[in-house]
## 1
Amino acid sequence: MSKIIILTGAGISAESGIETFRAETGLWAQHRVEDVATPEGFLRDPQLVVDFYNARRAQAAEAQPNAAHKALARLEAEHRGDVLVVTQNVDDLHERGGTQNLIHMHGALNSALCGRCDHRWPAPLQMAVGNACPACDAPAARPDIVWFGEMPYQMERIFTALGQADIFAAIGTSGNVYPAAGFVAEAAGAGAQTLEINLEPSAVGSQFDKALLGPATQTVTAWVEDILNSN
Ligand code: BJW
């Protein structure tokens, strides 16, 4: 009964209409990373950052899970071993597509975090700068997002799973951001078979055993079908 760990990135949600980061017209072509995705940027101009995430939250709320999200949920439901999805995405399309065993390592748009006491609560569709924390009342609400220089969530659980994986697949991620870009080396070092699913080879593409190139809605569906047929 094989253990499968799947890392997903922005590419899996692209066909649902959610912009990726590093495409020519992607989010980082429209916004400076250091302004909207660092703690220093938030300190400098919280309104800019809150507006950026309000717009992305609204976009994600309109989007629907696609065939790739649904195929991963089917894999979790029908595979006889364990399946864990670790997503870098902050949208909720995996959970709306039916995945249950899921880690949002870079946070979630639908969650708010208190900068003072670390309490979390469901984010309103439109957050405002200085929203009060429901636990400590400090006017310190921020989007519950992991910015550059901050520690991604649940790293201990992720590294334990990578160390036990039989199959590691990375779907729709460019391999530019660590620690996620290092997961393939970690899983391969522990003996897992590794597979990259992407439109094109990523920055760490040469580290995978195999690649399946093409749009996620087609490639992920075909891969899941193969795994379930070999169960
Ligand atoms: C399709 C498709 C279709 C398109 N079908 N595919 C020097 C060396 C190494 C590391 C560092 C360094 N200097 C600093 C660091 C650390 C830093 C880092 O990695 N920097 C790099 C830029 C070098 N990392 C951090 O700071 C992280 N924290 C950290 O390291 O803590 C210390 C630590 C140490 C040890 C262990 C653990 C921790 C935090 C990183 C936070 C990332 N945050 C962001 C923004 C916030 C979230 C948000 O606003 O949404 O997260 S950045 C952004 O990039 C976002 C994404 O989750 C992340 C990854 O992007 P992703 O998903 O790969 O998207 P794209 O656009 O890059 O790629 C899309 C891919 O899809 C492409 O490949 C397309 O081909 C493909 N695709 N359509 C299939 N239809």
Note: The chain has a mean pLDDT of 97.
## 2
Amino acid sequence: MPAASVRIAPSLLSADFGRLAEDLAMLEAGGADWLHVDVMDGVFVPNLTFGAKVIETCRKLTRLPLDVHLMVVEPEKYFDSFVKAGASTLTIHVEAAPHLHRQVMRIKELGAMAGATLNPSTSLETVREVAADLDLLLIMSVNPGFGGQRFIPRSVEKVAAARQLLAATGSRAVLEVDGGIARETIQACWKAGADTFVAGNAVFSAKDPAAEIAALRALCSERA
Ligand code: DX5
Ligand code: ZN
């Protein structure tokens, strides 16, 4: 039996924008827990995606919580408009957040869940002082910027260390992993302590995305 706390969060980046309404309805019916929304500014990462307008459109098309991942510099510029557009969670990169505590508090003040995320090369120590204030900690298991990249194996140890850090700081944050999550990689991350999994390519390239969501979830069972 999969654990009740497992969340599968398909990434909008891999959706077919010509059939967005159908894709979102299919994910919702297929048992997705959250919709992961990758916002890229072409500065923090070498790719451009979407902004408030698309978040607003998704908010109208689905009841799934919108898990917004901000791969942008000066993320605070977007907090108000993105929460207004319907973001449930705003996750910012510590590499782009010199005042992480202030930024986390501002997101919470606006009524959204506040997340922090780390590039693969960034130490977990950068979030220790704010861990207890976080609603979500996201471990990047690829270098952000593109879907469909290969999972970096060392990320499993980082997830385990993140789980320890959350326990040591008394944090109740969701522990999410993003990048290269598929049948081959999800179980190790689950066993290491992650509870929430972004999956773009794995879900959308599957013949039957709903069955893929179920298969990913089924791989997250007893940790022992
Ligand atoms: C990468 C994004 C990811 C990406 C995941 O920069 O943050 O959310 O969409 O896609 P897959 O699952 O294909 O690696
Ligand atoms: Zn992402």
Note: The beta strands are 7-10, 35-40, 66-71, 89-93, 113-118, 136-140, 174-178, 196-199.
